[in-house]
């Protein structure tokens, strides 16, 4: 800690991170051990976070992330979208295809940013807010590959006609971005994806990953 930082705020944020990393919640004793502070400090932290609905405690006394975190999370998409737009614009112009950033939303893939090329005679209309199952479409398949531990190169997913007849897609996963599962990809009217497109999509995915770190 430095003179410019708040120890209490730091501890509160660490509590949220610890709770976000577990599906079963943590007891006061477990949090005390992980934070290296006494139980009284943990009780105060939890009480404050509960007042803001960022933490809840179940009947057994285990602390879990509260629904208030969802309200904060609604502001994440605009920030992520802004950070990704430069790489998406470059990708769309280079390839001449519609580029998109897709994030996991529950059990679905959600397009949160879309950039269409400016110089093509025609391209696929793909809108922000479009949803589809994770196991259909290049964007979702790339995310599933990342879950299996694939690198960005090996995580490249190529599909044809899975979401729209006559359209092909290529996507590579975002990697190394804490708290975010997603992919960067392109969709085009073509029977196949040319060999040069895959590496360019992977490059764009790396650029977005770096921008979000």
Q: What can you see in these coordinates?
A:
With 213 residues, the chain is α+β, with helices and mostly antiparallel strands. The protein has two domains: 5-64, Winged helix-like DNA-binding domain superfamily/Winged helix DNA-binding domain (Arc Repressor Mutant, subunit A); 72-210, Beta-Lactamase (2-Layer Sandwich), CATH 3.30.450.40. The protein has seven helices and eight strands, in the order αααββααβββαβββα. Strands 5-4-3-8-7-6 form a six-stranded antiparallel β-sheet. Strands 1-2 form a two-stranded antiparallel sheet. A hairpin with an 8-residue loop joins strand 7 (167-173) and strand 8 (182-189). Helix 2 crosses helix 3. The longest helix is centred in the middle third of the chain and has 20 residues, at 76-95. The protein is elongated, with a radius of gyration of 21 Å. 34% of the residues are buried. It comes from Streptomyces chattanoogensis. Residues 68-213 form the IclR-ED domain. This is IclR family transcriptional regulator.
Give short descriptive properties of this protein:
alpha+beta; two-stranded antiparallel ribbon; WH_DNA-bd_sf; six-stranded antiparallel sheet; DNA-binding; about 210 residues; Arc Repressor Mutant, subunit A; about 20% strand; Beta-Lactamase; 7 helices; transcription regulation
């Amino acid at each position: 800690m430095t003179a410019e930082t708040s120890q209490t705020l730091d501890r509160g944020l660490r509590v949220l991170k610890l709770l976000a990393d577990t599906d079963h919640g943590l007891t006061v004793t477990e949090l005390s051990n992980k934070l290296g502070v006494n139980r009284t400090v943990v009780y105060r932290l939890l009480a404050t976070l509960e007042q803001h609905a960022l933490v809840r405690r179940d009947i057994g006394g285990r602390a879990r992330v509260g629904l208030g975190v969802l309200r904060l999370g609604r502001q994440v998409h605009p920030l992520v979208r802004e950070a990704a737009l430069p790489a998406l614009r470059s990708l769309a112009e280079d390839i001449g295809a519609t580029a998109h950033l897709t994030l996991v939303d529950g059990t679905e893939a959600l397009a949160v940013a879309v950039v269409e090329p400016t110089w093509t005679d025609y391209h696929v209309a793909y809108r922000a807010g479009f949803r589809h199952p994770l196991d259909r479409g290049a964007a979702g398949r790339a995310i599933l590959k990342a879950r299996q531990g694939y690198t960005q190169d090996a995580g490249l997913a190529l599909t044809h006609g899975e979401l729209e007849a006559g359209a092909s897609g290529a996507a590579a996963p975002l990697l190394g971005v804490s708290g975010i599962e997603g992919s960067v990809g392109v969709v085009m009217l073509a029977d196949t994806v040319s060999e040069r497109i895959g590496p360019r999509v992977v490059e764009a995915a790396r650029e977005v990953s770096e921008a979000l770190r």
